[in-house]
Design brief:
The structure holds two protein chains of two kinds. Chain A is mainly α. Chain A is built from 17 helices and no strands. Classes of the chains: A mainly alpha, B alpha+beta.
């Protein structure tokens, strides 16, 4: 029973870390422009993230070290300062995108322009982290996040051609404008593999005092949690392909995105769309803000813990107080939230190798993993992920310029 | 005897004080050079200056210049005598009270002037869990 409860962590992680502004934006755009053709990219990203999350959890459970702790210890400050700085910069834009997503949802419902919501939303994020314990944050986002299942319901109601969906899992050449097709494929992978997820997840495992006994839970959480997030993201893609594509509506203009559910479920669909986007992005913003605080505190050895009263870990609390405000300022500047999201996804892809390569080395270090080092399968997937990450980080910027 | 590698097993490790609180990281290791005898480990170094110096001496000078500019004194480098090291395992345990002894002024300042003043800052977030029984 306790193990079942622990899987809640995975569901939160999947909703917050998997289904976020990036995943929703890239999946709906992929569906609206290329039908089911980019499903393979989503599936590939999911496979990678399942393995990476499992590794982060295993590292924490066996060594009692979070990813940040282990990276600094293993590779030293002179190396660690680079992934640390890169991650902090990327996280600022990621949180700004997530806040932008929540703001857009509020704009859909109230009609008040999104930028005015930026600071109130940041305050709400802070309040959530400030007053909640780790399990409160975990469980409440998980339960609220269940609303996103509406996309799966919409797929069932649309009676899509399941054979055609199946064909989408086999990579195929694009019908037209190849650069934007590939750019979108890269963005999807960037949206699915969120580095903050790994820092967050390993910190959560340490907060929950995982030990080697929890390795099975960890495996279940990675597969079920990430699988759930992926299923919903795929549903978003399929719904967009079934509604926006035939109607000739690109999803590059955010005002039109709610149409994908209101065409299926009417006015209720419109509200459910707003609720799904708002909640998924809010969960991701909470998780990413907390993740920044974990990362900073662990980098410098401060006291940290979401269950402690904020006064007892003042520097940790300071980080999750300041970061959402800075991010809200970016959102408030009025940059198109969709463009901001695609930009931060491309940025994420650029920094992926500098995180993932050391991660794979770490997972083979006996000092940390004892007898639970990576097996051949994890290492094979790890090598593929790193190679793909390097290729993607090189092509991401040129592709954004040509195809974005 | 277990072999200990300073760079691998000590440098950049988490520091834990005598009350099992996080007390920072081992940012540097100081050696004492002695006439006619081999050098020996003297202390653990901590603090932002040490971190800056490890990246580049110029960065350390900039950091000190910046401090001067905003009118702050350069703090004494914080050092933990090697003899205070109690245990080196998953973390480095040192026999100090980090709340009083470690370079914790930022934490204290924040706790007193900023974070501590926000309502709810001292509230226990979670009920103490009863001791867990192993099934």
């Amino acid at each position: 029973m306790k193990n079942v409860l622990k899987i809640a962590l995975g569901i939160l992680t999947s909703i917050g870390g998997f289904l976020d502004a990036g995943a929703i934006a890239t999946s709906s755009e992929a569906g609206a422009r290329y039908g089911f053709r980019l499903l393979w990219s989503l599936a590939f990203g999911t496979l990678c993230v399942v393995f990476l999350v499992e590794m982060a959890g295993r590292l924490a459970a066996v060594s009692n070290h979070t990813v940040a702790d282990a990276m600094r210890e293993r590779f030293g400050w002179r190396f660690f300062v680079f992934p640390l700085t890169a991650e902090l910069i990327v996280d600022l834009f990621v949180i700004a995108s997530e806040i932008g997503g929540v703001c857009l949802a509020l704009q859909f419902v109230t009609g008040i322009a999104f930028r005015w919501w930026a600071f109130p939303v940041a305050l709400l994020i802070w309040l959530f982290i400030w007053s909640g314990s780790f399990s409160f944050v975990e469980d409440s986002t998980a339960i609220l996040g269940l609303v996103t299942i509406v996309f799966v319901v919409a797929v069932v109601k649309l009676h899509p051609d399941y054979h055609a969906i199946g064909a989408g899992f086999i990579p195929s050449m694009p019908p037209k404008d190849a650069p934007s097709y590939w750019f979108l494929a890269v963005s999807i992978i960037g949206a699915v593999i969120s580095p903050y997820l790994l820092y967050f997840y390993s910190s959560g495992a340490v907060e929950d005092k995982w030990t080697e006994k929890d390795l099975n839970v960890n495996r279940g959480v990675s597969v079920i949690g990430m699988g759930f997030g992926s299923l919903v993201a795929m549903a978003v893609l399929v719904v967009a392909a079934q509604t926006l594509l035939p109607a000739g509506i690109g999803s590059d203009r955010y005002e039109q995105t709610p149409l994908m559910l209101s065409m299926v479920l009417g006015k209720t669909g419109f509200y459910l769309f707003a609720a799904s986007v708002g909640i998924a992005c809010f969960g991701a913003a909470v998780e990413a803000s907390l993740s920044v605080a974990y990362l900073t505190a662990q980098s410098f050895g401060w006291t940290w813990g979401e269950d402690l009263p904020p006064k007892d870990d003042a520097r940790f609390a300071m980080v999750y107080t300041v970061f959402p405000i800075l991010a809200a300022a970016v959102t408030f500047s009025g940059i198109d939230p969709l463009k901001l999201t695609l930009f931060s996804m491309a940025l994420t892809v650029v920094i992926l190798p500098i995180l993932l390569l050391p991660m794979i080395v770490l997972m083979n270090d006996e000092k940390f993993l004892k007898s639970h080092r990576n097996g051949w399968l994890s290492n094979a997937v790890g090598v593929v992920v790193v190679v793909v990450a390097i290729v993607l980080s090189v092509v991401a910027i040129p592709l954004e310029l040509i195809g974005g | 005897m277990k072999r200990l590698q300073l760079a691998r097993d000590v440098l950049d490790q988490q520091l834990i004080d005598r009350y099992e609180c996080n007390a920072g990281k081992v940012d540097g290791i100081g050696l004492e050079l002695r006439d006619g005898e081999p050098p020996r480990v003297a202390f653990l170094d901590m603090g932002s200056d040490v971190l800056a110096r490890r990246l580049s001496p110029r960065l350390e000078r900039w950091l000190q210049a910046l401090r001067k500019l905003i009118g702050r004194k350069t703090p004494e480098p914080y050092r933990v005598e090697w003899s205070k090291v109690v245990k080196i395992a998953n973390a480095v345990t040192i026999d100090i009270d980090s709340d009083r002894d470690a370079p914790n002024h930022v934490e204290h300042w924040l706790a007193e002037h900023l974070i501590g003043r926000i309502p709810g800052a001292s509230r226990e977030k979670k009920k103490k869990e009863p001791e867990q029984h192993n099934q």
